[in-house]
Amino acid sequence: MKKLFIAIILFLGVCYNSTAQKKSNKELQGDKYAFVYSFDKAIEAYTHSKKLTIGGQRMLAMSYHNINLNNQSESIYAKLIKSDTTILAIDYYNYSMVLRANGKYADANKEMDKFKELKPFDLRLKSHASNNNGLTNLLIDDGKYQIEHLNLNTDAEDFGTSYYKDKIIFSSSRTKTKTNEKNYNWNGKPFLDMYISEMDGNQLMPPTVFDKSLNSKMHDGTASFNKEGTFVAFTCNDHIEKKKDNVVGLQICFSTYKDGKWSAHEQFPLNNQAYSVGHPFLTADGNTMYFTSDMPGGYGGADIYKIKKGEDGVWNKQENLGNKINTEGLEMFPFFEENNGILLFTSDGHFGLGGLDIFMVATNGSAYGRVYNAGVPLNTQYDDFAVIVNGTTNKGYFSSNRFGGSGDDDIYSVDFLKGLNAGKKLIGIAKDKYGNAISKTFIKLFDGKGNLVDTLTTGDDAAYSFLVDSDKNYKLVGSKEKYNDGDTLVNTSGKEFIIKADVTLRVPIKKEEIIAQQIVIGADLGKILELNSIYFDLNKFKIRPDAEIELDKIVKIMNEYPTMVVELGSHTDCRNTKKYNQKLSEKRAKSSAEYIKQKIYKPGRVYGRGYGETKLINGCACEGKVVSKCSDDEHQKNRRTEFIIVQK
User: Fold this and answer.
1) 374, 121 in Cβ contact below 8 A?
2) Which of 62, 121, 237, 269 sits between 20 and 30 A of 205, alpha carbons compared?
């Protein structure tokens, strides 16, 4: 079933065939076979064409790739890239993916660099840039997983496990249980049915057909159930052959178990012949569903969505999980591990080892942490996908067409020996030394190097939470008016996903303590903190890039000292009238202050004052009609904003 979404890329290839070049009859025949997923027949037709157009070469390369003949696909792409024809950005990307599937990572990176030149803002490049340096670590087996091939696998497709009470449901094309005699064009094998099997340690017992009433004449599965096993969502075909193209898409069907039997199929409201929806995952209560779709409005390829039921039992509007999860590639097979709040999914758009890879990301409400590639041996250069896991035992199953299996897609068991490593969730409350919660506290999170990572202001319950990396040191600092700052050091090592760390603020500041602190205020403190003036262009009040560097220093200091008050004094040179210069200096003061206010806690702690040309720092004065003989560099020294710390 994964290949039906992968076919989206194929349709793009069909569009590329619209060229002025004349196609041979064999190439046209290959296009028709490829369009209905008969890739073996398409390859035969393409290879017997005396000369392929540029579009035909693309289709031949993709046809090889779609049936995992990646060495042949690489050869075709290599010739295509070296030809004198017009090369598209996607050619470099697809070639890179094929090279990655063949384990040629250095060569794949070169092609990805060419893709970047043509499509620099592609989301897949963002993932590639931020993770490519970690490729070596992804290829190291550090003992995180114990993987076992299952005895029930056959040379057919066996994949897509889900929990059903104390049993496992999966999809397979192992036997012809359908009443028709048709096979699936893509691989020539029977359409998928859902099977049920009992767990036996890490293995699964010999399976039986799950329920004949749920298995139709075409594809059925993957499936997902509520905790009680009384409600199921599963991928099915729309059963309507479109007259123009004979392409059958994916839908999501529902069924309810009542009075000893499953109800007739209920259609998901978003089912649509214009696009596919599939790969559903239901939360334990059955009221939230994650799913995959190539519906309009996504980021490209197939995206993961989330949808909830209202109190009336009607599905609300779907929510795209956003560009932290979704890319222009394929994001599929979502699984939400509710105990720890971790989303596991499959992607070929995020930086991976080749083909489809498994990824994990911690969630915090609607926020998502860093997306982690699971690494070897869970991921390989082949397709690795559809992982599920019991958050209590840290054991689960996934699917793969990796080398050494029984043939085609197989099911494997996996034991997450070090837990689900998708970062950690840091939670706690701001309180006083007596344990009383302090609401509306400003919390800052610093990494081990002292860099500010994140900030928030707690609500009435004084609670906070952050998504952080594993095996790191962090510092939490809590600030509130009339309290001394409190801080807590945290280490995120260990198996626990949720780490609790409260911040204790000290008793309210006494009057004599305030007086003692004020001794070190003013310009002297500014010198100690190495605060440099910022400068402006002639007749301008726009913040320059070099000024942003100095202003960011102020921002950092003011967030570290939540009671600090700073005055910004802005000035001009002597040129133009005094009235004009006064207004210009006020605009410079305002723009400087606004830059800082947007980035600090309690923005009222910073304010600006304009001094016009009244405080020149050199002899570059202009009196009446007298024109100063100072150079531009000397005048520049007067076009400035200075920082005065009024209160620490």
Assistant:
1) no
2) 237
pLDDT above 80 (res 181):
no
pTM for the model: 0.69
| Position 190 confidence tier, pLDDT thresholds 50, 70, 90 | low
- Residue 581 phi, psi (nearest 5): -65, -35
Res. 523: pLDDT tops 60: no
Residues 522-543 as b or e (16 or more Cβ within 10 Å = b) = eeebbeeeebebbbbeeeebeb
Q: What tens digit of pLDDT does each residue of 431-453 get?
A: 998 889 999 999 999 988 888 88
The single-letter code of the amino acid at 444 is K
Q: Which long-range contacts (CB under 8 A, 24 or more apart) does 21-24 make?
A: 21/53, 21/54, 21/55, 22/53, 23/53, 23/55, 23/56, 24/49, 24/50, 24/51, 24/52
- At residue 289, φ and ψ (nearest 5 deg) are -135, 130
Phi, psi of 172 (to 5 degrees): -155, 150
* CA 338/CA 474 separation, integer angstroms: 25
In terms of C-beta distances under 8 Å and separation of at least 24 residues, what long-range contacts does 604-609 make, across chains too? 605/558, 605/563, 605/564, 605/565, 605/566, 606/554, 606/558, 606/565, 606/566, 606/567, 606/568, 607/566, 607/567, 607/568, 608/567, 608/568, 608/569, 608/570, 608/641, 609/567, 609/568, 609/569, 609/570
Quote the pLDDT of residue 556: 83
State phi, psi for 159 to the nearest 5 degrees.
-165, 175
